[in-house]
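Query structure, 356 tokens:
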């Protein structure tokens, strides 16, 4: 049986940020990443100004990675459209590029990364891998994103959940022109879709929908969404046939407690509505904060960190839930669109949903 002082399950932004912080302090963390190579996942693509600042704090320049600058927000609901400036510059960057750069940095700082290994279950900070190997850890960081790990599953109760879908589309000259410098959100019953340009010239299309809408399958869901969001259909054309998907997304959930020595980071700490665009910032902020708490070594680090981060995430998560509720309900969307037209209110909403 292998033993390590700090074991991180998941090599996304949250896990990598924790690994970088621990490695720089000499803690020599071990990261378990199930993907053998670079890959895109459902979530991410938008980097808010707070995410960009935390990347700089870690030593990464998103612009040097090719991130596309974003300065404006465009909201579309039916045949109505509102466009407003963002309070500060944001960016579009694929998760393939971002995650790979963060893991490279973690390794350069001294972290060990095991790729292509799948974590199966945890018991008392002992992790079992897909090949039967077991690893004991003094500190365990659960950074599995929206996926659950047996033995550490989030207790979401009867909270309503959503499904997320992502596709990468080639950008026609017209679409590339229309999305230059813009994050575009299309609102419909039970969800919303986001479009932005990535560094590789592709268009990142992410959809969120109430899981109840998946009753007749993905194709039926997409057909209905294309009718409800005609401008999205005009942008994209026929629905893509290849998607990455994630189900059971508990928007609005926060981890308010944890077990001794277990640090929940990223979506395992707080799940902000994706239309707020602050998921990457929360991942980075939680990873950095968890590493700092662990390094104190006072025996109370995990529980103190989890309570503190739950309080820290309360305002942005609650603000995002209020916006999501308005966006997803037909009677309230016109109010949301009207408020967005008022100078300064859209920017205020964007600032309220930042982790800070």
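Result returned for the query:
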């Amino acid at each position: 049986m292998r033993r390590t002082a700090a074991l991180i399950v998941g090599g996304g932004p949250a896990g990598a940020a924790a690994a970088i912080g621990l490695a720089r302090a000499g803690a020599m963390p071990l990261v378990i990443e199930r993907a053998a190579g670079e890959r895109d996942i459902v979530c991410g693509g938008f980097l808010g100004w707070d995410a960009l600042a935390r990347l700089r704090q870690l030593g990464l320049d998103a612009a040097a990675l090719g991130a596309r600058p974003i300065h404006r927000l465009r909201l579309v609901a039916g045949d109505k459209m509102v466009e407003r400036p963002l309070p500060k510059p944001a960016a579009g960057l694929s998760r393939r590029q971002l995650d790979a750069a963060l893991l490279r940095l973690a390794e350069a700082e001294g972290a060990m990364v095991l790729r292509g290994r799948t974590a199966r279950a945890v018991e008392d900070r002992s992790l079992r891998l897909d090949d039967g190997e077991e690893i004991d850890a003094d500190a365990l960081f659960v950074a599995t994103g929206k996926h659950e790990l047996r033995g550490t599953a989030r207790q979401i109760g009867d909270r309503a959940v959503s499904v997320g879908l992502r596709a990468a589309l080639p950008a026609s000259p017209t679409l590339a022109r229309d999305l230059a410098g813009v994050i575009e959100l299309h609102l419909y019953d039970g969800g919303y879709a986001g479009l932005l340009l990535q560094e590789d010239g592709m268009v990142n299309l992410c959809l969120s929908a109430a899981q109840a809408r998946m009753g007749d399958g993905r194709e039926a869901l997409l057909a209905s969404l294309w009718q409800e969001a005609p401008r999205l259909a005009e942008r994209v054309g026929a629905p893509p046939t290849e998607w990455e998907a994630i189900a059971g997304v508990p928007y609005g959930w926060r981890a308010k407690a944890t077990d001794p020595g277990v640090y929940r980071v990223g979506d395992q700490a707080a799940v902000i509505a994706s239309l707020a665009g602050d998921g990457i910032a929360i991942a980075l902020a939680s990873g950095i904060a968890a590493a700092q708490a662990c390094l104190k070594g006072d025996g109370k680090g995990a529980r103190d960190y989890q309570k503190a981060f739950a309080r820290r995430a309360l305002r942005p998560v609650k603000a995002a839930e209020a916006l999501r509720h308005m966006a997803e309900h037909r009677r309230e969307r016109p109010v949301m669109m009207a408020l967005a037209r008022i100078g300064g209110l859209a920017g205020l909403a964007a600032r309220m949903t930042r982790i800070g």
